[in-house]
Amino acid sequence: MSTTSIGIRAEDAAIKYLQQNDVRILYKNFRCKLGEIDLIAQDQQYLVFAEVRFRATNEFGGAIESITLAKQRKIIRVAEFFLATRTWAQNVKCRFDVITMSQTVASPHIQWIKDAFDGEIY
Fold first, then answer.
1. Which residues contact 85 (CB under 8 A, 6 or more apart)?
2. 105: helix, coil or strand?
3. DSSP 90
4. Average pLDDT of each block of 10 consecutive residues along the chain (122 residues)?
5. According to the 3-state scheme, what is the secondary structure of 20-54?
6. Quick check: is 33 in a domain?
7. CATH classification of the domain holding 105
8. How much is the pTM?
9. How far is Cα 29 from Cα 40, in angstroms, rounded to an integer?
10. Is residue 122 part of a domain?
């Protein structure tokens, strides 16, 4: 299976998991000139920008460790662009979540880390 198809399946599993936890998915793979955010969702009063990471093994570091400071900055820049281009989202509380998966995509162990990093967007 290609890394692209694994990524798609991981994102689909994350969507299903979040929906089971009463989270409303607004966008999947939101793209702009600055980059991409895997999922944008609404969790109660929060607008959530979520990064999905899958790792079959921890041999080269776990899923959470793969979200570097540079990756966080890129996600924050895309989120700022998203907010600047949507008047309805101007005064909404925001947070950055990470959904990690391990084992196999068919039967993943999912961990939802709310407010995984600070983006200073409130």
1. none
2. coil
3. T
4. 79 95 97 97 97 73 74 95 92 94 73 88 47
5. HCCCEEEEEEEEECCEEEEEEEEECCEEEEEEEEE
6. yes
7. 3.40.1350.10
8. 0.87
9. 8
10. no
